[in-house]
Batch of 4 targets.
Target 1
Amino acid sequence: MLVLNGVRLQTEQFPNNETKVKDIEHAIKPSVSPSLFATNILEFKYESDSDFMPLMFVRQRLKELRARCYLFVWYMPYSRMDRKIPGDLFTLQYVCEFINWLNFEKVIVMEPHSKETMERLNHSIPVYPVVDWLPRIQAEIGFSENDHVVYPDKGAAARYGDNDYYDICIMEKKRNPLTGNIEDMRLKKGKVNLGSKCIIIDDLCSKGGTFAWAGSILKSLGASEVYLVVSHCEETIFQGKLLDEDSPISRVYTSTSMMCKKHPRIQYMDVNVKNYSLYGHGGNTY
């Protein structure tokens, strides 16, 4: 899905599955002067591989019209394929090269899965909505000095470690080197206060088994409530047990970057695309 300056762009399919993209000129911001061009913001919300073709068409049309444009990527496609694995293609690298070829003035990536994405994208900056959401969520649940922000692994600790959160807890996961499956998990750093509320923060949730496991450990150590905050959440969450009545996770906070299906335990958070694109932060998103 493509959105230009808040206007969702329309596409159609020919009988042979070729894509027809309606002209975008009506959605482009007019130039301030002959020498000063307005900045357009094109949102790219990946739904399938067929989204890449309209992205190319729209970018080429913007170039024809000499329209300055930033690309806001809600979720970077193929970002989990972030290393060369024998027998597989390094698909993240090729997607980054495609976006580089489109040559946007700036590429804003919402919560990149790893540093590999940003290292391969030109003119790119990462943004982290979970950091901006956290004060609102803490106020909503009555977070206090007795409570904890929890990193579920060393990757999350590295991603959010610069933020000055009070009384951090860090989990450690042990993976099977052959299957990649998580075989063990423990609290590596910090102490869970009795009756405390814990907020787990990370970038992506799939079925949620790892977060349910972490939540169970936190509750066994004395936590009364556990919440999960992730920028991206796949619909596969409905295939797991994270949303069950007996789940240790009370509520999941996320964006609509990958889904918008409703559930009593899911709360969708706003993403201020304009502020992130122009200023690098979300500002007041609530």
Note: The chain is about 25% helix and 25% strand.
Target 2
Amino acid sequence: MAHPELYLKKNEDKRLRKGHLWVFSNEVDTRRTPLDAFAPGDMVVIKDSSSKVLGSAYINPNTLVCARLISRKPSAKIGAHFFKARISQALALRERLFDKPYYRLVFAESDGLPGLIIDRFGPVLSVQITTAGMEKQKDSLIHVLLELLSPEAIILKNDNSQRQLENLSQTSEVIYGQLPESLIIEENQALFKLNVLEGQKTGWFYDHRDSRARTAKLCKDRHVLDLFSYSGAWGIPAALAGATEVTCVDSSASALALAQSSAELNHVSDNMQFVRSDVFDFLKQARDNNAHYDVIVLDPPALIKRKKDFKAGYQAYHRLNQLALQVLNKNGILVSASCSHHLSKTNLHELLRSSARHIDRHMMFFASGSQGPDHPIHPAIPETEYLKTYFCSVSNSL
């Protein structure tokens, strides 16, 4: 059966023709196709103003991104066959990239599965569904995951703000199987304990894997400060690489408890300390106490979640980096990152430059990093490229 039609206004098809997959509500010709005629999760065929087909999509008339293309074909359907084909393709790439089953298996639009994130933690899959269209197909999705991967457990991580915008439940649940008593993953020759149900996002952040490996190599015989440390993914490999001391700072007691457990698992507890504190407060106190560190990792959460938050978020990033530079030893290394899509690499470059000049320090970028290969970038969707990292060598002004 043919899908209902959704017409775009004149000239609003250009971005889709370049390869993007989103339709915004203000791009729809609501006189020809009123949005209130559709229900959340319905399949539609997208047409331009001259009635040319652009592809099949699912729709939510109540959200800003009101439709997401799943195919350029006019009658494509989401179901078991669709999921099996797309997930098999995603799996084949990850198995070429990694020799152990610890990675992001599905990265939404980049893997042709808008509204779906899946992280693989060995025998456990953490699934994040963020749209009504994908939620409507949940049963088919779970069936295919069981068929392809035979996991011990599948968790639906529903506690994210995007689901609230889509008017979906935000209660996480184990939808299949039973979680192992202790879930442990391996990354960069380190072992980490996870609490997927209560952890942030999917329960782990695989995206910085490569940058964390590069950082660890810089930490031998150094005093390392890991800010916004979460569960120790930067700090523990640094300690394993021979850091004399690693200080992990985070405001979450549960994240620090996990980090401490992982430190014990890796036999590096004696070289690590865990401080529960607001990072701004910690840095101000460290500055006032004349404390200094050889390597500082600054990996804050997204401080600019929406375009309108840019000014305040930019200022927060600027203050954090300036404070970090003030407690960095001479000839020290600052690893500064941002996961805010709305803060560009150029923005991060500029705020680092101005922070260094403000306190009269000489800064050089000797490397940069992006998201790992299990977070592939869709060339037509800028939103899929969000992570940026600068590795900075900092000394007294020349």
Note: The chain has three domains: 5-71, 80-181, 184-396.
Target 3
Amino acid sequence: MRGARRWFTCLVLALGTTTFLYLLWSFGPRRVWEHFRGFGWGFALVLPFQIVDHMCNATGWRLAFSPAETPKVSFWDLVRGRIAGDGVNYLTPSGSIAGEFVRPGMLRSSLPHDAKVTSVVIAKAAQAVGQALFVLLGLIYLLNARSYAFKTGQAGWAAAGMSVILFGVAFAIGLLAARSPAFLKRRFPSAIERTEPVRRHLRDYLGHHPGRLAGSTLFFMLGYSWGAVEIWLICFFLGFPIGPETALCIEFLSNLVDAFAFMVPAKIGTQEAGKAAIFKGLGLAAEMGFTVGLIRHAREMLWAGAGLSLYAVRQRELKILG
């Protein structure tokens, strides 16, 4: 199994790299470099811009705790946990899962470990639902406005994919929170016993705080929406200004690409190819989309590196304390 996973990762990375190089050659390395260089000091503004997204996501995570637990958790610990977890998710071929194991350990709170883990599970579910709803609302808008050149069946397949994600998240959370049938307890006694504290926390949260779950989902949606502001800013500094509506449409579709390409480590090739296709579908210059993807990719890599650094610092703290 491990060997097959390694081969799959190598194949995905090879395909992504090949796609990136093909597009770079098609648009012309010199022309892309000129666009990238023309962006200039705009990068100094785009780079710290991401902190707002992390703060929105940290607020979504904060709402995944019960009202009694929330005062015991530092907001900035949540921000650091988001950055660290996202960095691990971004750089590892884990389907955006590995980083979730990092987040509980980033919290310096005195809360029980089970409460921290439960909050991560709830926040991950709220984030997945938030992204799916964000994309579905975007698809409805794009179809109504007829602003994107969808080919036959594309929008339908995209909507079906997002609906599957919504159903899958609801089913997984319901299954995890449900009281285990006797046959599962007999078949997987140790797993049921180990996960019972988390499952009990989850049942209590879902039963008593549905409003906080809705609020968490909303803040994750706001985090995804903030990406449209970044797109607008990048295009502005590239000398290719677009309207807020167009920027939001680009971000709708970017999230759709990310949702289907979640297994690609560091979004190799998918970031640039996705943006090029999105810009072309919106009637914009595909090479500008490629450049926007390249700039966003550079920003994501730097933040992922920062996340790994925060994780390393926290691990050193835990080692000293332990």
Note: The chain has 13 helices and no strands.
Target 4
Amino acid sequence: MAHHVTLLPGDGIGPEVTAATVQVLEATGVEFKWDKHRIIGTRAVEAERASLPADVPASIRNTRVALKGPITTPVGKGFTSVNVQLRQELDLYANVRPCTTLPGIETPFAEVDLVTFRENTEGLYSGIENFDERLQIADSIARITRRGSERIIRFCFEYARQNGRKRVTLVHKANILKITSGMFLDIGRSIAEEYPDITFDDRIIDNMCMQLVMNPGEYDCIVTTNLFGDIISDLTAGLVGGLGVVAGANIGDDYAVFEAVHGSAPDIAGLNVANPTALIRSAVMMLRHLDEVDAATAVDQAIADTYRDGACLTADVGGGASTSEFADHVADRVASIAGTS
């Protein structure tokens, strides 16, 4: 049975890393029917369309799954983040960011294996901002709801149980933000009682950042609110080699979007030098979501083997291969493992 998937190449290096990822996916032997020709972000604006054209969420509502390349988000002006728009439009409340060590990448820590669960639709990213022109005062409201807190915390615990994880750490700032972070923490403690097989604890956000750069091996699953999750997930990516090698997914009750979490790197767009590893690893998450477990395992192994031998890596991780050469190499390994060559 073919899987219908919305394909969103994105901006900058997006089309290149997306093409590489599709090549690797198709080497698994799994059949895909791609809903292509959907533009978003800068490319859409340049075509005099909305940054998130209505046909894009409509396509995802139809396919229920999307694979998305990186998007350029203007800083301080311009259109609202397409990523935020998609998450809110489709109620993709769980941002799931696994960070696991790849062989061959030199990092301060070995055997890092963390998953961050970030609430994706509220908090300081709710977009509730006000500006008093007369007094020159800007306000931003961090909206935390019981419903939003309960579902992301429960999502984390369910993931931990289903994947054999043993510990959940809730991150907050309840010592200062006693109402918003306080409610999130109280809800976490209540839900934890339903999962006696999983160890539960909590950390204040600033202390957690220190703990992660000193002893990341102490932690397993981390659940937190939107802004804190944004910060922690990038921090944990740095522990394993950076945003160029880590996966990301935005998941709701009805739809899921799998994406590269790094930027669009317009300065190297079109040069065939970008590293597609992040989007390929996100595609592994997509394969598991689609219950294509054998294919996911094959791609996972091919990536690990490619980094382990180090013969065909892109420049950002110490190699000299182009994007297309890396894709060819990984696709060949996938085909060999999956028996599709």
Note: The first helix runs from residue 14 to 26.
